[in-house]
Amino acid sequence: MTGGMSGIEISSIVDLSYLQALHDVFSDDMKSRGIEVASAILDEKAVPLTFEFNHCSFCKEIRKTKAGLQVCRASDLYGICVAKEHLERTGQVRPVFYVCKQGLVDFCAPIVVRQDVEGRKREVPVAYFFGGQFRYTGERKDIVTPAEPSLGLLARTAQTLQERPPDSSDLCVRFHQTTYLDETQFHQLEAAATSFTDVLNGVVQKLYDWRRVKRLEDFMAGAATVRGVDELFELVIESVPEMIHARHCSIFTIQRDEPSGCEHLVLRKTSYEKLKAEENSAYYNKGEGLTGWVWEHAHSLRLENLQDPAERMAHGRLDWKHKYNDSDEHRGFLCVPIVGARRDVIGVIRVPHKEPGNFDKYDEIFLNFLAGHLSSVIQCQLAQERFDREGRVAGLVDIATRLGRARSYSRVLDATITGSLALFGGDGKKHFVNILTSDGNYWRVEREVGTLGLARGYQDLRGMTFEIREGLTGLAIHDCKAYISSDLDGSARNGHYIPAVDSGESAMSAPLKWGKEVYGAISIVSNRRFEFSKEEDLPILMRLAELSASAIKKARAREARMKEAKAMRAKARRKRMGRLARSACRMIDWLARTFGGAS
Fold first, then answer.
1. Which residues pair with 246 in a beta bridge?
2. Whole-angstrom Cα distance, residue 21 to residue 39?
3. DSSP letter at 135?
4. Contact in structure between 96 and 82 (CB atoms under 8 Å)
5. Within this chain, do residues 412 and 507 fall inside the same structural domain, yes or no?
6. Are 450 and 431 in contact (CB under 8 A)?
7. Residue with the larger pLDDT of the pair 202 and 509
8. Within this chain, do residues 328 and 430 fall inside the same structural domain, yes or no?
9. In angstroms, what CA-CA distances link 293 with 62, 317, 350, 548, 564?
10. In this predicted structure, what is the pLDDT of residue 337?
């Protein structure tokens, strides 16, 4: 990977999978706002470093050809030049909007590190944050979208490459279907892109300044290979303080009291000597103390001065004096939630700062970022703590019970992924539930959990769609047959999609088939340390897939019946209203005849 002007490679500052996780934050934010724009992080040569999210139909069609890809990369390089020129002219690190060579609006923002060059601070780009692919006809006249796409360069490039260009009439239709942003949406996008650029640059600069990346990589590698949840928590409390200059570290997890059904936030591990005796017994109720506040609000809490009443009041009435505080004698305080796959809080990490310093917003971003990566590891370890991996056959009975109790399609998928974790563990593995689209031509990742990074480090593949026969999963769905990667030679792998077996991982996939219906597939991929067995592991996965398919069929039938019953109730209600309306009309006619005639 080529570095920027300084020769610095961004991969030497931050692992690309962590960069992808940061990028996901922006993509999710735009999706929640209903603003459909593409985004990616590219290197100096306009080569993607993260997954290119949400390409519009127009750009997807263009990029299917070599000529189109070449023209689009040239446009990206132009965006890099525009961003560099703006940085050199103004010294500002912010997104710059421009019109691409085909006529859509894009933006580019540099990701820089500040270096000392001959005694002067110099901002050196190491990567670029891109986004856009939308139409705009607002107040800014420098980025007005043309009425029709500019396809001349594409046609000339295709002619040079002796390639047939895409259908221009089809491209024009797709161009007109591209997202249009009004003035309000444009300003929302500009503000969000500027804010995210600031966050991205702050995190990268902090990692560069602190040279924290090696410790972070060692920590995440260790977290993925520990055996048991207690060993994982021990690694967390030992490693986190030195990474963010904290005095201590305490980690809490949510535990349910089975007789009462009440949940508590229990102290699992701490490096604070005064609290070690309270491990596995000290707990918070939801909303209790600063730590309970983080659980209740599912949001991080950073205080520069814990003992300043005005700062505490800014967050509401914070009860900070509590028996289980490891921060009473300190000022700087930071506490972040560990959020699970279903967006629920599964734990909390709490740290006080080393005196006399305070945590800044980039420390908060970094610890939230770390907690996000720990989430899947902790979930896997907790699942492995609850279920004995050696008792998998007996575990199928429990899983069948859970699937039978699932009253909705969504809960069936959740029970399936939980069952896969219970049977095959989470350490060094990734689990997927993939479902066929309604047209039967594609399969989509519906559920995903696990510790293993896949597809060149991309972490979150939920919602991604692949064609039938793509990858081991597509093969299992298309052939209605369970496959294990060791049975396939290189030519039969059908691309390096999930499970990603091109890098030597072991993978298996079983179709979700019940009767003649195929709903999708369950897929698991592991690193080289865990080779799946055709004799022991594949039959277990096939049985899980069969149980899940049966539950999916019942859940869909139940939901269809509920929908039909709802429609019938609505029809009956309309019919009753019709009868009442007709009766009212007859009454009005009678009154008109009776009293009208009398008058």
1. 353
2. 13
3. B
4. yes
5. yes
6. yes
7. 509
8. no
9. 50, 10, 12, 38, 43
10. 93
